[in-house]
Design brief:
By secondary structure, the chain is an alpha+beta fold. The chain has twelve helices and 15 strands. The chain is 24% helix and 15% strand. The protein is globular.
Length: 345
Amino acid sequence: MVIDLNKCIGCQTCTVTCDTMWTNRNGREYMHWNNVETIPGRGYPKNWQDMGGGFDASGGLKDGKIPNMKKDYGIPWDYNYDEIINAKEFKPKSEPIWGANWDEEKGSEDDEKQKYFFNLPRICNHCSNPSCVSACPHGAIFKREQDGIVLVDMDKCQGCRECIAACPYKKIYFNPKISKSEKCNFCFPLIERGLPPACASSCVGRTRFVGFLDDEEGQVYKLVKKYKVALPLRPDFGVEPNVYYIPPFLSPDKLDEEGKIIENSDRIPMDELEKLFGQEVYDAVKLLKKEKSNKSKNQKSELMDMLIAYKQEDMFRLDGDYYQKISKKQKLDYRYLKGKETSVD
C-alpha cells in the first residue's frame, strides 16, 4: 500500500470503516487497526515511536515495551447520552486519561505564525522482515507466501504478548477477553476477491494505492521502485515495511513577522520528515516538487497523474483470479484464524 500524505485530511473515515468491520466489540473496543494521528503528536498508543522493538544493526531483536492499557491506550469511555436528551451537560461518564487522537491537530510548538502539522494514517505494515513473527515463541504469527499478508493463528496464540513488544509500530493489540493477540489482516477476504481493503476503498481523499510490489505496470511499483517517491515509515526499525508514504511536499510557506508569506519556505521542516522516512526523503521531495512544477506548466507528468488519481478504481491493481492461479486444485481457506489451505475437487 502507498498512502499520499498530501491528500489525507484526517477525516477518520478509514478508521471508522475499519472499526465497524473488525474491532467494535468483544474486547476490541480500544483497538484501532487503522488510525490517523498527527505529526507532531504522540500518536496511538502514546509515544509508540519510543517503545522499542524491531531489529538492531546486527539483525537481533531489540527490546520493546508493551503499552499500558490505561496510560498508553486509554480506557474507552461512554457519554451521558440520557442526560444529553434532557438538555443537561454533555460529558464523559468517566474521566478519560488518554485515547486515540488525544492531541490531534495541536501542531508544533513553534511561533504561532509557523505552526504546522500533517496527518499520518497507520495500519500494520505487513513487513517483509516482521519482528513479530521472529519474536513469537509459539509460531502463532505467519506471513502468507502468496501475498505477504501477516496474520495470527489464534489456535497457536498463547497471549504472551512478545509480538506486541517486538513490533516497533505497536500495531498488534491484546484482546483481554480471549487472552490473544489480534491485528490488521489487510482485509484479506476482500483482497482474495480482487477488492481493496476497506480503509482504501472508503478513503474520501483517494490517498491509498494498493497492488503487488512486483507488478511493474502497477502504480505501487512505479511510486516505490520507479520514481522512488513512496517511502517506508521509520526504515531504521529494520523490519522492511510494505506500507509506503508520499511525504508531504505541499507544505505551506512560512510567514514573516508581519504575517506575510515567505516564498519557497516549507513550514514542515525537512529534518522532521527525515526522522520519519530517512534521508531518501530529500530526493523524493525534490522530485515531487519538480514534477508538480512541470504539471503546472501543462507538461506531461506520469507521476503527478498517478497522484491526482482521476479514477479511484485505477488506484487498486488487484487480480482476484491470482489466487486461483496459485493452484487449480487448491482454494484458500478464508478462516484466517487457521491460516491453512484446503484441497478441493
